[in-house]
Amino acid sequence: MKHRQLLRRYCELLAASPVSVTSLREPDELWELHVEDSLTALEVIETAPASLVDVGSGGGAPGIPLAIELEVAPVLLEATGRKARFLEQLLAELELPGEVLAERSEDAAAGACRDRFELATARALAPPPVALELCLPLVQPGGRLVLWTGLFDGQELAVVAEMLAARVARSVVTGEGRQLVVVEKLAATPERFPRRPGMAGKRPLGSLPSGA
């Protein structure tokens, strides 16, 4: 199928899903939220990555729309079992190459996925400082994280990025109170990260001294 046909089919599968991955059922609303919003990242991605991980993939956005447009096999990381199984069905129905990992990002980054991916994406995953800790350990040095977010404290995020061997490269406004943040990974993940599962949310790095 052509890209647009695949993206339309993706929305149809979301609308028919028995799994609670979206509250929307109207095709136009699904297209706007799950396709158009995902593809805003094309402006900052610029060139297709060799590898892509979508963290907290849920219903497959932004990972699946970007994988279709960029023609890259995604790794969809989703800790909730029923959602992970739905993502596997989506890849099969769309005949897309890719892989679903049903585990937490902290566990994935402590194993074979550590410093692995050229591009990581995350939308509605967690507050920005928390999302950085959950995602950046998966990104290879020289790679990037694209984060969908609302308003954020730029100074705090810069500090967290530095702790994770990265830097905030740019942010792009995509709508009222909405923006994309691009974070570049500068070096391998420091040995003490990721912290054990759940710690990123309980004790966000931005609230800790840099040596904590």
What can be said about this structure in brief?
This protein has 212 residues and is α/β, with parallel strands linked by helices.
What key phrases describe this protein's structure?
alpha/beta, 212 residues, single chain, seven-stranded mixed β-sheet
Describe this protein's structure.
The structure is a single chain. The protein has 212 residues and is an alpha/beta fold. The chain is 37% helix and 22% strand. The longest helix has 14 residues, at 81-94. It has a seven-stranded mixed sheet, with helices on both faces. The protein is built from nine helices and seven strands, in the order H-H-H-E-H-E-H-E-H-E-H-E-H-E-E-H. A hairpin with a 2-residue loop joins strand 6 and strand 7.
Order of helices and strands: HHHEHEHEHEHEHEEH
Q: Which stretches are low in confidence, meaning pLDDT under 50 for 5 or more residues running?
A: none
Shape: globular
Structural class per helix/strand content? Answer: alpha/beta
Main pleated-sheet profile: 7 strands, mixed
Give the spatial strand order of the biggest sheet: 3-2-1-4-5-7-6
In total, the number of strands is: 7
Estimated radius of gyration: 16 Å
Number of helices: 9
Average pLDDT metric: 92
Helical percent range?
A: 25-40%
Distance between the termini: 51 Å
